[in-house]
Amino acid sequence: MNDEKKPVTLYIFRHGQTEWARLGRHTGRTDISLTDVGRDQARELKSAISHIDFSGVLVSPLSRARETAELAGMQETKICDDLAEFHYGSYEGLTSDQIRKEVPGWTVWTHPCPGGETLDEAAKRCKNVIDTAYGIGGRVAIFAHGHILRILTATWLKRLPQEGKHLMLDTSTISILTHERETRAIKIWNCPTNLLTIV
Question: What b/e sequence results for 4-24 when a residue is b if at least 16 CB atoms lie within 10 Å of its CB, and e otherwise?
Answer without folding.
Answer: eeeebbbbbbbbbbbebbeee
